[in-house]
UniProtKB/TrEMBL annotation:
Limits of the Methyltransferase domain: 60-159
Lineage of producing organism: Bacteria, Bacillati, Bacillota, Bacilli, Bacillales
Keyword check for Cell cycle: no
Family annotation (SUPFAM superfamilies): S-adenosyl-L-methionine-dependent methyltransferases
Organism: Marininema mesophilum
The protein, known as: tRNA (Cmo5U34)-methyltransferase
UniProt keyword Ribosomal protein, yes or no: no
Entry keywords, A to Z: Methyltransferase, Transferase
Any single biological process term in GO: methylation
Pfam families: Methyltransf_25 (PF13649)
Length: 256
């Protein structure tokens, strides 16, 4: 695994979290839950799209696990699943490790860099499912195309690639619609979590809404239609989108 160029987290004002909530959920869970439009719906969609039976044994690799909500929900739902959780940030991997202490016999953690594809080689024909949430938009169009091909090649027959990510809007008016929808959901989630709008304030102050602030060079979202085509070109079958909210889509395909 690549151990250089470890990422530093530059955003995320945790001071907004009241102590009792931090105790109950953990700081990162509060932040990712707050900023992601309807993370619970996303989680349920992922769990369905894995297309696995509860007692099945299978191996999942999560690309960019962050604080680990997705890996953890897979371990909770499928008692024989094994997870490899990868992220570019040591800090995030530590949070994820803490969160999954209970499952430590079935989960391993490692650093990786999305752009440096050599971490895929040791996984070749060892993986039933690749999953990823809100990370692949750091690759540009050409990189995504190659990435999908490499993941397809590495998957076992019957395997799946399921991605949640932010999409490029096809027009300015759609970008505005997604921006407003995202802000409205964060407003609702701030009220749910804190009983006030402090979460919305952080969302605005830290410029999380890329449909309002599209200038961060780290964000390279692609059109959903292009990504579905690149998956098909890589060889995936059953390629489709299953969920979309505020520009965040869940889509993927299967290897026969
Ligand atoms: C927006 S967070 C998403 C985290 C989590 N998957 C979720 O859905 O909440 C992006 C994650 O990707 C990681 N990341 C960003 N760029 C990366 C890169 N180039 N290589 C590896 N990890 C990266 C960050 O450390 C962070 O944990």
């Amino acid at each position: 695994m690549i151990r250089k160029n470890v990422l530093k987290i530059t955003k995320g004002d945790y001071s907004i979290c009241p102590n009792n909530k931090i105790k109950k959920f953990g700081r990162n869970k509060i932040l990712t839950y707050l900023l992601t439009p309807r993370q619970d719906e996303m989680k349920n969609t992922f769990l369905q799209l894995l297309s696995k039976k509860e007692e099945e044994e299978f191996r999942v690799v999560e690309l960019g696990c962050g604080p680990g909500w997705l890996s953890k929900s897979i371990l909770e739902t499928f008692p024989k699943a094994e997870v490899v959780a990868l992220d570019g940030s040591k800090q995030m991997l530590e949070h994820a490790r803490e969160k999954m202490e209970h499952f430590k016999s079935r989960v391993t953690f490692d650093l990786f860099r999305l752009e440096e594809l050599d971490w895929i080689d040791p996984l070749d024909q060892q993986v039933d499912c690749f999953v990823s949430s809100l990370v692949i938009h750091h690759l540009d169009d050409e990189e995504k195309k190659e990435f999908f091909q490499r993941l397809y090649d590495a998957l076992l027959p019957g395997g799946a690639l399921i991605i949640a990510d932010v999409m490029k809007a096809n027009s300015k008016s759609l970008a505005n619609y997604w921006a407003d929808e995202w802000e409205k959901i964060v407003q609702e989630q701030s009220m749910e979590l804190f009983g006030d709008l402090r979460g919305l304030d952080v969302f605005i102050k830290e410029k999380w809404n890329m449909y309002h602030f599209p200038d961060d060079p780290a964000d390279k979202p692609s059109l959903l239609s292009d990504q579905l085509r690149w998956l098909e070109q890589a060889g995936f079958k059953g390629v489709d989108v299953s969920w979309l909210k505020a520009g965040h889509a869940i889509f993927g395909g299967y290897k026969e």
